[in-house]
Design brief:
Layout (H helix, E strand, L loop, with lengths): L2 H7 L4 H4 L4 E4 L6 E5 L4 H18 L4 H17 L1 H12 L3 H21 L6 E3 L6 E9 L3 E4 L7 H12 L4 E4 L5 H18 L7 E3 L4 H9 L5 E5 L2 H13 L3 E5 L4 E5 L5 H13 L9 E7 H16 L19 H16 L3 E4 L15 E4 L15 E7 L2 H9 L3 E2 L1 E5 L3 H8 L8 E4 L15 E2 L16 E9 L15
Parallel strand pairs: 5-6, 5-8, 6-7, 8-9, 10-11, 10-16, 11-14, 13-14, 16-17
Antiparallel strand pairs: 1-2, 3-4, 4-19, 12-13, 15-18
Helix pairs in contact: 1-5, 3-9, 4-6, 4-8, 5-6, 5-8, 6-7, 11-12
The structure holds 2-aminohexanedioic acid.
Enzyme class: oxidoreductase
Keywords: NAD, Oxidoreductase
GO molecular function, one term: aldehyde dehydrogenase (NAD+) activity
């Protein structure tokens, strides 16, 4: 199917795809796919006011009824799965299976959120005073801003939107400037769900297109009480303090520098498969991508030999071809960042295998994934480069390996390959991995929506998806009700007038 057909199937008109100020290029071949209209900073005032108006109506709709909207969104996503996935491939350069997987992740969170819409549980609390009851209730917060990155151009919005909507909050989404079309397509899918729902307030779901100044309007507005931002640590270090300064709540999903420890007892055949998927999948452009391999000295040569063999035959190329496993990097700047990281790694004592430009459609940035054997965790290893570079280090004792795994500024995802129960549990213990995600015998990427997703340190501390992530989108209220004819004070305080 041509990309013109995909855009038509998703409901785009020619007028929406031409004449705008933002040129959209496909990483596949650098060709311009559309020129979309950008939101102006002046328009942001009305966007936020409209979200506030939607909030006043939506917050009183019963939560299970709000869940019905998200159920319909899930149905519409199922109906548009192939087209939206094809657009993800076109605009973000993901291979077909990963594009489909990303849309599936959206459907999964919708299903999850529908269930949550009937489980926004508070507490009944034992009061110390006779004739009193205490309860805790969760209420909607207000408009929720979502700033997302190019690499998961649609799923990140859905993790936030599905929960925010059942929690009673409108959503304003600022996607990456690199992937506005997928966001506009999601908005169209959402609008179909809204029509079927019937009586939702206008402006419950809005998309704003533009650069940092548009995002900043959300970041700075006290009328956007929840701000969820996914992207670089640099971006988060600006957004976090600004939201805090106006007493807003931020949910930050920033950089990762994810490691795998490979212990002497590891099933190396399985480890190789896990390493290759997590290090080169999505061309190393996931926040959960495997970037550091910490391998026991006794199995190092065997493992590195197997990896070099696997790396040498990986199919790089047009992500639309069924045989391709590694599509393009998102743009020229990414290619340059990769080459610069490899040069720094060499200066810091690394031996580079791979990493050269690869064949692919003209105009796209295609690279061979790189394996870099490092003498230790030098500066470049501690830095997240969004490209398929895997640094390999070795260790002798598990304590040493865990210390190395934790000795980076980021704290998103981690894993160990071992068949030794003691080692696995040490890795998962309080003295083990310091990351938000710690796995055993699977790689660090490809998390399911049932678990809380996010990480510590420079990863930002936010959590999306998972059992109680909904609490991040609601405010908590404690109520004490006196049904007696007395007025006893807590803590035995006497205050007779
Ligand atoms: C991201 O790269 O921003 O765990 C998110 C994963 C996916 C999400 C990645 N479920 O790899």
């Amino acid at each position: 199917m041509s990309h013109a057909d995909v855009l038509k199937n998703l409901g785009f008109t020619d007028a929406e795809l031409t004449g705008g100020t933002l040129a959209v290029r496909s990483p596949i071949d650098g060709a311009e796919v559309a020129q979309v209209r950008e939101t102006t900073v002046d328009e942001m005032t009305a966007v936020i006011a409209n979200a506030q108006a939607a909030f006043r109506a939506w917050r009183t709709v019963p939560a299970p009824r709000r869940g019905e909207l998200v159920r319909l969104l899930g149905e519409e996503l199922r109906a548009s799965k192939e087209d939206l996935a094809a657009l993800v491939t076109l605009e973000a350069g993901k291979i077909v299976s990963e594009g489909l997987g990303e849309v599936q992740e959206m459907i999964d969170i919708c299903d999850f959120a529908v269930g949550i819409s009937r489980q926004l549980y508070g507490l009944t609390i034992a009061s110390e005073r006779p004739g009193h009851t205490m309860t805790e209730t969760w209420h909607p917060m207000g408009p929720c801003g979502v700033i997302s990155a190019f690499n998961f151009p649609v799923a990140v919005w859905s993790w936030n939107a599905a929960l925010a909507l059942v929690c009673g909050n409108p959503v304003i989404w600022k996607p990456s400037e690199k992937t506005p079309l997928t966001a506009l397509a999601c908005q169209k899918i959402m609008e179909r769900a809204l029509v079927r729902f019937g009586d939702a307030p206008a402006h419950l779901s809005q998309v704003v297109i533009g650069g940092a100044e548009i995002g900043d309007a959300l970041v700075q507005s006290k009328d956007v009480p929840v701000l969820s931002a996914t992207g670089s640590t640099r971006m988060g270090s600006i957004v976090g303090p600004r939201v805090a300064a106006r007493w807003g709540r931020s949910i930050l999903e920033l950089g990762g520098n994810n490691a795998m420890i490979v212990a002497p007892s590891a099933d190396l055949e399985m480890a190789v498969r896990a390493i290759v998927f997590s290090a080169v999948g999505t061309a190393g452009q996931r926040c959960t991508s495997l970037r550091r391999l910490i391998v026991h000295n006794s199995v190092r040569d065997d493992l590195v030999g197997r990896l070099k063999k696997a790396y040498a035959s990986l199919p790089v190329g047009d992500p639309r071809d069924a045989a391709t496993l590694i599509g393009p990097l998102v743009d020229q700047a990414s290619g340059e960042a990769m080459q610069s990281a490899l040069a720094q790694a060499k200066e810091q004592g690394g031996a580079v295998f791979g990493g050269a430009p690869a064949e692919g459609p003209k105009g796209g940035v295609y690279v061979q994934p790189a394996l870099v054997e490092m003498p230790g965790q030098s500066a470049i290893v501690k830095h997240e480069t969004f490209a398929p570079i895997l640094y390999v280090m070795s260790y002798d004792t598990l304590d040493e390996a865990i210390a190395m795994q934790n000795d980076v500024p980021q704290g998103l995802s981690s894993c160990i390959f071992t068949l030794d129960l003691r080692e696995a549990n040490q890795f998962l213990s309080a003295a083990g991995s310091d990351c938000g995600i710690a796995n055993v015998n699977i790689g660090p990427s490809g998390a399911e929506i049932g678990g809380a997703f996010g990480g510590e340190k420079e990863t930002g501390g936010g959590r999306e998806s998972g059992a109680d992530a909904w609490k991040g989108y609601m405010r908590r209220q404690t109520s004490t009700v006196n049904f007696s004819a007395e007025l006893p004070l807590a803590q035995g305080v006497k205050f007779d007038i």
